Amino acid sequence: MKILVTGCAGFIGYHVAEALLARGDKVVGIDNLNDYYDVRLKQARLDRLKPRTAFAFHRVDVADKDAVGRLVIDHGDLDGIIHLAAQAGVRHSLVDPYTYVQANVMGHLVVLEAARRLPGLRHLVYASTSSVYGANTSLPFRETDRVDTPVSLYAATKRADELISHAYAHLFGLPQTGLRFFTVYGPWGRPDMAYFSFARAIMLGEPITLYDDGRLRRDFTYIDDIVAGIVGSLDKPPEDSAVPRLLNIGNHRVEEVRELVRLLEDALGRKAIIRSAPRPAVDVAATHASVEAIGRLTGFSPSTPLAIGIPRFVSWFQTWRNG
């Protein structure tokens, strides 16, 4: 197959592109390489993909309708799209809200418009987020739960994407699956994520801030499990293209953030300097994914607990930091 991967220099996009190439697919990757975090990390991921003959990279902003339109004309034989490009980060949406609407809402619309003009497109898989569950307190989160109480602009833009996708499936019969990611972590990860910034601070002897004494609970999901779920979903288009799917993709295990810190301390061989603060308004107390639906569809069965995934991340992190 020939697959377009948006955000291919990002954390998840890079790993997905690697997996598709490894199984023999052709990958067309786009990314704008913005400076939300260290561009050198994005470039390093991209440098690992570029030597592959089945990989073609285009530096394109996903919200640029003209550039994406031209690209789709040039690659009109695409079989699938995995749309991962977005402005990530819950707290940063308080700092730069306009970027979130431009990248996440306009970018999603641009991809949908391009997708509906591809005659051979079998499936569009796109990234949503567990953040859409917002103030919901019923655990585990299920796809049938109400999602009309977002607590961040980031979550609101991702819920908007889900609704726009529903309209495009209804109007144009565009086969789609939205995946609600739960706290993805692992090697080549994002420096703005807690596990990455904690590791850096612990190594440098700098303090870290734990909200509510580290008692916030998260469904931490290792990158290899996430990739398996994404690729498995891509291979299972909806039987009725007018009815889009929404699926949770998580670890189905809940850990307190202070356990994450303990595992980082063990793997790094250093103690954290901890400061406590109240939970910000944009953070929820807990996330927990029900993964029965994606399991029935694809056989998805996450197999990497935090106690295994964090040492793997630390091994990569120390190599990257010393490289």
What does the model show?
The protein is an alpha/beta fold. It has one domain (2-185, 222-252, 288-303): 3-Layer(aba) Sandwich (Rossmann fold). Strands 3-2-1-4-5-6-11 form a 7-stranded parallel sheet, sandwiched between helices. It starts with a strand and ends with a helix. The longest helix is centred in the middle third of the chain and has 20 residues, at 153-172. Strand 2 (26-31), helix 2 (39-49) and strand 3 form a beta-alpha-beta unit. It is built from 10 helices and 13 strands.
Short description:
With 323 residues, the protein is of the alpha/beta class.
- Estimated radius of gyration: 19 Å
> SS-based structural class?
alpha/beta
Main beta sheet = 7 strands, parallel
Domains (count): 1
Number of strands: 13
For the record, give the distance between the C-alpha atoms at the N and C termini, rounded to a whole number: 35 Å
CATH class annotation: Alpha Beta
Coarse morphology:
globular
Helix content percent band: 40-55%
